[in-house]
């Protein structure tokens, strides 16, 4: 019996009118697909039949893709950098907090459009583990919307409405683990050996103890250790995050096939971007920290190739919260592209670090360590998200006394009243006072809006918020606003009253959307109104400045003081930011510079008030008519 080629298996389920496109796309992806999957699984005797089965199920998902999604794929295939322009703007929210459920989110589309949003990341909305679920990051089914948030029909309706509004829906694809009540875990517990092989399990502590010598901890306080004893299995299961989040075993090709199918199933429901959660953790290797392993990149490149065959309009986004030098690998290479977008978490953390230190030293180092983007790719910039600000991604930049320096920054943001800090936040999961882990809090609270008691303190807090957002908007990235930050929403302390949340201070920055603040957004006098107006002005200016597109060149001009960041885009746009509470001066490069926001023209040495930011565009020299 001859084994039919993977291409023949891919085409078999397709109607004739789709076969040419499928064959053309397959031809472009074949080398990467075979090489990467071959390197991971090729030594298995059943590799070729497995690959054939995978391609046949990929073909079936291709056949099921709706015509309007296929049309969108074709348009984007013709313009592969469609998402990297200066008019692309993101927004991230929990469904329950933003709109109660998916229908409620649809009712917020007008707000998103008013802001200029073109990309909406909804935090996990698939059926979550019963009981505690890490905010939905413990997924019980990749096929079903969580009943508390709506139905699959609601999801289809929402993606269609968003598409019509020019907004791409981004969903988490939690690749690293599933909930302990996902069918795979339940079947494993029931004794099915095939499903037990979906996970990393060990009969005793011998191997876990060996791994623990080199593997770090994500939740050292709330979930210490990386292994959990499961009585039903009488074995230890690898659980990087909470004990109820079981890491998937990607050494098993069935796991890869199942997750590729899950991704395409969601893409067919209209998801346009996948936030690949915890991408750094997918492959385990003894003697290492089990992060950023070459096999994890091979897995992602194979996943990208499959997406490029079935849904080339769909984007992959790496959520790899890793030090700056480890980030570029998540874009892959020309020959084997990986993710389209990657979170720049060290940039985000360094921005907050600059506020705490009133010095842009960390920020300048992170920017210098950030390489130019490959074609059709983008960083993701942000000020806050649903997670902590993790400080350890800055250890490379923080120098010899790095841990102590980052711990000082974390203490600043914990900002207990009386400590002299304007910030109101919480330290997250730190294991000792001289080491930093993360900081939590809404941007407004961390920037001083919550503690402000005078008009000037409030003004300064608003300037700090615009400073950080201005950096995210002008850096050269897809900026993603975090729900509530556009209105200066502050911390939600109610989580401490709930037993299932009290140990996880990330809930501090997961408040419900405040419609009373929304009502003030156009008043121009309330803190929310001023912040909203300021942000809208920056967003509008960005939209008309091609120099702010993701791939446009970026450099930093020298300043007399580390308090000032002079970020140049191209040679005609300058973001001048004073990260300190003292007034500073900066001498502009020769020529006249027009303020992007108020149109005034500046030249020579300019003054920058505390936490002040200027967006400046170089005036074009008037062409003199020959006499
Ligand atoms: C991601 O987080 C999610 O964003 C978190 O909300 C989840 O709890 C977690 O995965 C598990 O699904 O691992 O790659 O330090 O920054 O857990 C980075 C806390 C992650 C988060 C970290 C992060």
TrEMBL record:
Residues 92-521 form the Glycosyl hydrolase family 13 catalytic domain. Pfam families: Alpha-amylase. GO terms for biological process: carbohydrate metabolic process. This is Amylosucrase.
